[in-house]
Amino acid sequence: MPGDLPLLTFDLDGVLCRPPLGINPGTGRDKRRDAPGKEGLLWRTEGWRYRGRKPMPGAVEGFRACQERFRCAVVTARGLPAQDLTRDWFHRHFGFVPELHMRPSWEETSARYKARKMAELQPMAHFEDDPFTAQWLSELLPAVFLVDWKRNRWLQGANIHRVQRIADALSALDQLRPGG
């Protein structure tokens, strides 16, 4: 039964969905946890700036493989203004819309939102691409799977596992399972 399965959470952009032009900028080295959110151009364009993107290589297959063994949910910093577009994207590329948690307001930074959601949802592991967020979440969760990008190669940690594709994490996830 899905409610009895351990929970995995997935970031969307850079993990399940390709970033624009395949470029994933920013190293996350100078971010601060106490930084205020910003109501800037990016928030105001949430409804259209995600159009035309394709899934990351192996994302659909990897997510489906995880769903066979775990309850899976998406926790994205995309804002609610992009909810319809995001749901349509999942339907078009994955054939269904998974459990989806989206940032309700610009007043909370991406990383702070995800840290709050992790405390609420208590997943066994999370898939992330942002090094700042991954480092923070590694303090809250048993495991973080960091999808490998040039921008995050500096990050290391005892419970941070680097993967090229989601399916690369399956054997480690099986070992993390209760009784695994």
Kindly name the structural category: alpha/beta
Mean of the pLDDT scores? Answer: 87
In whole angstroms, how far apart are the ends?
Answer: 18 Å
* Beta-strand content: 15-25%
Main β-sheet description: 6 strands, parallel
The coarse overall form would be globular
* Alpha-carbon Rg, integer: 15 Å
Low-confidence stretches: none
The tally of strands reads: 6
Spatial arrangement of strands, main beta sheet:
3-2-1-4-5-6
Care to give the gist of this entry?
With 180 residues, the chain is of the alpha/beta class.
Describe the structure.
With 180 residues, the chain is of the alpha/beta class. It is built from six helices and six strands. Strands 3-2-1-4-5-6 form a six-stranded parallel beta sheet, with helices on both faces. The longest helix has 12 residues, at 83-94. The model has no long low-confidence stretch (mean pLDDT 87).
